[in-house]
Amino acid sequence: MSDTAMRQKRDVTIGRLEELQQRERIVLDIEGIGVGVYFLHGEVRAWLNICPHQGGPVCQGKIMPRTVQKVGPDQKSKGLGFSETERNIVCPWHGFEFDILTGKHPSNPKLGLRALPVRVENGEVIVTV
């Protein structure tokens, strides 16, 4: 049986919720598994640190507002702008973007990050790996 097959899921406490709220993101290695944990709009998400495009360390990329096309009341383009509510993770290798809360690519909903179970108990952030 391979080493990977022998691994069992387990809960790992990564820190206090207050710390995650202040930092917005924590990227760490848990027994050889890269994990990014994010806090946005009162929600906590954990993603495997592997970009589905070509395996880059996606969680180490920049966090930025989603780029949107502004449309005026006349339905004409008013140029590009940034979303006030949506934030994306931008993979440092090739610029692929993923929504922090859904893990989905903004224009291809079939392309997304792999979620890991995460929860908050007694103020501690716990990831299941």
What would you say this structure looks like, in words?
The chain is mainly beta. Helix content is 9%, strand content 50%. It contains 2 helices and 10 strands; from the N terminus they run αβαβββββββββ. The strands form 3 sheets. A 4-stranded antiparallel sheet has the order 2-3-4-8, covered by helices on one side. Strands 1-10-9 form a 3-stranded antiparallel sheet. A 3-stranded antiparallel sheet has the order 5-6-7, with no helix packed on it. A hairpin with a 2-residue loop joins strand 2 (25-30) and strand 3. It is globular and about 55 Å long. The chain starts with a helix and ends with a strand.
Layout of secondary structure:
Elements: H1 3-6, E1 11-16, H2 17-23, E2 25-30, E3 33-40, E4 43-48, E5 62-71, E6 77-90, E7 97-99, E8 115-116, E9 118-121, E10 124-128
Antiparallel strand pairs: 1-10, 2-3, 3-4, 4-8, 5-6, 6-7, 9-10
Q: Please tally the β strands and state the result.
A: 10
* Residue fraction in strands: over 45%
Euclidean distance between termini CA atoms: 19 Å
Largest sheet: 4 strands, antiparallel
Low-confidence stretches: none
The global form is: globular
Radius of gyration: 17 Å
Task: Give the tags.
129 residues; mainly beta; 4-stranded antiparallel β-sheet; 9% helix; globular
Quick take:
The protein has 129 residues and is mainly beta. The chain has helices spanning 3-6, 17-23; strands at residues 11-16, 25-30, 33-40, 43-48, 62-71, 77-90, 97-99, 115-116, 118-121, 124-128. Strand 3 (33-40) and strand 4 (43-48) form a beta hairpin.
